[in-house]
Amino acid sequence: MAVKASARAYEALREDIMEWRLAPGTVLGEVEQSERLGVSRTPLREALARLAADGLVVAQGGRGLVVTAVSVENIRQLFELRVALEQESARLAARRRDSEVFVALRDEFTAAPDLLDGRDPAHVDYYDLVSRFDDAVDDATGNPYLVGALRGLRPHLVRIRRVAQDDPTRLRAAAAEHLLIVDAIVDGDAELAASATRIHLYRSLRNILASAERLTAVREDDK
Question: What is the CATH number of domain 5-67?
Fold first, then answer.
């Protein structure tokens, strides 16, 4: 079945926003984006409406729709929600998991340093592993409402991850933190899984905020 033009436009714009090819503050003019994506303006408007519902674009007086800003304030706000959701997901996963799934993930996270050896600057294989971990936790929770909330949050988290510029030292530490979470889930220790998740997110937030502050300082020096 052919994918609708509006769906194609939505997926293309969503990926461009998450990967910063469309940076925060970029104006999404209908004529320009229609031509770039090869769709008419009606499906483009449908795509933009979906992105607005996702919180990835926002109306700005006199400028039309623009890509939502990324600031220290909204990074903190996103992590407040992320901590609440992911701690509970880890807790439920530890109680309801298929242990074989997480044993296999444990083996992969044990070997994760090999994925961060510098041969792949984009760390595609590592991020694929993290995505599969997220999917496994989602499946294990048995709670579609919680999973729906997390899936709505993740595009924003991908965007702010770019602020940290994929620092290899931080990624190696994050892999070790994920391994601790997986260990706790395998063992069925719900509170340890939640605590390990909180530590991981605390360190992730600290790293992202430090990177955001450095970028802000550079921009100020360039003025």
Answer: 1.10.10.10
In the chain, the amino acid numbered 171 is L
| Closest by Cα among 184, 207, 179 to 194 | 184
Task: Give residue limits of the domains in the chain.
Answer: 5-67, 72-222
In the 8-state DSSP scheme, what is residue 27?
Answer: B
Tokens at 13, concatenated: 């714009």
Q: Per residue of the chain (223 residues), give pLDDT as tens.
A: 346 999 999 999 999 998 889 999 999 999 999 999 999 999 999 999 999 999 999 998 777 899 998 888 989 999 999 999 999 999 999 999 999 999 999 999 999 998 888 777 778 899 999 999 999 999 999 999 999 999 999 999 888 887 776 778 889 999 999 999 999 999 999 999 999 999 999 999 999 998 877 655 445 444 4
Question: What stretch of H or E contains 59?
Answer: strand 57-60
Residue 24 is classified by DSSP as: T
Q: Are 194 and 88 in contact (CB under 8 A)?
A: yes
How far is it, in rounded angstroms, from Cα 178 to Cα 118?
20
**Alpha helix positions (H), the chain:** 5-18, 30-37, 41-54, 72-96, 99-110, 124-141, 144-161, 168-186, 190-222
- The CATH number given to 72-222 is 1.20.120.530
